[in-house]
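In this section we walk through a basic example: taking a raw amino acid sequence and producing a predicted 3D structure, encoded as discrete structure tokens. The instruction is simple. Fold the sequence below.
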Amino acid sequence: MKMILFRKFRVFILMVFLVACTMHIMIDLLPKLEKRAVGADGAEGGCQCAQSPAEEAQGWGKQRARPVSGAGAAAAWPDKHTLRILQDFSSGPGSNHTSRSLEKITGRESQSQILQDRKPLIGEPSGVRAVPASGPGPGTSRLSALFQHRLYRTDPPPLTEEDTLFNVNTDIRFYPRAAGHQDWHNEGNNEDEYPPTGEAATESYPSWLRFHVGINRYELYARHSPVLEALLKDLVSQRITSVGMKSGGTQLKLIMTFQNYGQALFKPMKQTREQETPPDFFYFSDFERHNAEIAAFHLDRILDFRRVPPVAGRLVNMTREIRDVTRDKKLWRTFFISPANNVCFYGECSYYCSTEHALCGKPDQMEGSLAAFLPDLALAKRKTWRNPWRRSYHKRKKAEWEVDQDYCDEVKQTPPYDRGTRLLDVMDMTIFDFLMGNMDRHHYETFERFGNDTFIIHLDNGRGFGKHSHDELSILVPLSQCCRVRRSTYLRLQLLAEEEYRLSSLMEESLLGDRLAPLLLRPHLDAMDRRLRLVLRVLAGCVDKEGYGAVVEGDPAAGDAGPRGSPPGHRVCLGYLYLYPYLYLYLYLYLYLNLYLHLYLYLYLYLLVYYMIKDLKDLQHIQDLKDLQDIQDLKDLQDLKNLQDI
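The resulting token sequence is shown next.
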């Protein structure tokens, strides 16, 4: 009877274990099944619980919350080789693979044809635009109308001390008199006192310092910040007090210091506007163009990323503003007069720094771009990350992402791309680079103070706008492999494809405000419209394949009213909420049964050991009895033999 009860108890323990395993599997599979159901329904038409246009417009004005960290990917962890490739480092040699160009797509489509071919958003009624565009009226600036659009008027998130790069009251104080420099003049009132705290203190700061103070977790500068215009003005008007060569890099760059202690990176003109990158040039041997740096800043601002430091064009007198003020003897020694009586110099760098590649003025005037410096690394450390889709920088070898179509699945499992908005930021950077034709994006930087929940700084854009006749589709590989995009970015791209807000027209108008205008020729402007249509075509293919909710992700920091997966003009689809009570029930049962399962297992092991020991003791006792019986039998036999002998 006891053995029967023991066997029943073991069967009961086994059944409890099987039930717990079943609950565990259901807990793991339920989110995936729900996501797949949302994507499938989104592809068929999405949820029909649409909100009114008034509520939608009102939602864009709500305050934005900080980005919420997303859940990690459920797939297996990548191997060590993949982790090593994706791990960030500041600098290093190229990997053992190379990149290749995909086919060149030529041919231009009319704007009206693109508008007809554009598919409506999921859940959008036929014939209704996803982004209502009340274009600028006659005589109205297209750029001003763009910045007045509701997509460009979202409220900034409330900032805390952890969200700002500097604390104005304690971290930064500017005392020009204490520096002993007599050439600095305050732009405001010339009072003797410069209060270190409060709004009055920040107003007394020079523009470059106010720019540094305004950097926060979400942006380099505010959308309508007056500091930006003041800084751009200072870049082209402030007197240059010293010049030095920037160490590192393949081409010559100069660091210029102004009379108000601000600094900027100067990239001199190497090519004319009409010159294209030679077709036989590799992307890593291309020249860096000063007009590309300026145009990249304006493009970044139109896309509303605000991740490129302010850049302005300036006509520099090479004799008075470089040679006469430099203290770098190595730079000074490279100045010479060419046979055409032009002032030239070449400096020192890895490539293109020789007499054959000298930079010459006309006769001593030279164009160049001036990019405002970010805060010093001693005050605001920046972390350098290796771009997961970095090219090999080799003539023959290919990068891993060029031969592995599932490469993005490995990236999604690797920190920091497995949570937060970092992967969406990389997709933004991919779109930004493709519109420029920039293939030279091997690393990117972020501010260490903000951890992984911050934006990517778009630095070093000089190799963009090299070819207007060729669209390098390999730049879009991250977007086509991952099929992910930020909702605000997707809506702005659709807006910039409309006739009223055409990207080329906005860029042309924005670049006219620079001292060196015109900076881009018409073929480059038309190429941006063509590339924008290609980006939207790739995203449309992703939506058709995976569904709107799986491709377009909401960003709480960008002012999205709805959560991830909700199409524009729609709230959360209530049809899938029935899954969540079951999810909580399964979770509760799983935790409850898991606790008791461990108790039952410990009890089972204890009883198993107990009965094993008891059985061993019984067996030993039986053996002892048998031994005693054998001994007794032997004694009886001995007695019997003795009796027979007698």
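Looking at the output, two observations stand out. Confidence is low (pLDDT under 50) at residues 38-134, 177-198, 561-578. DSSP finds 21 helices and twelve strands in the chain. In the next section we compare this with other chains.
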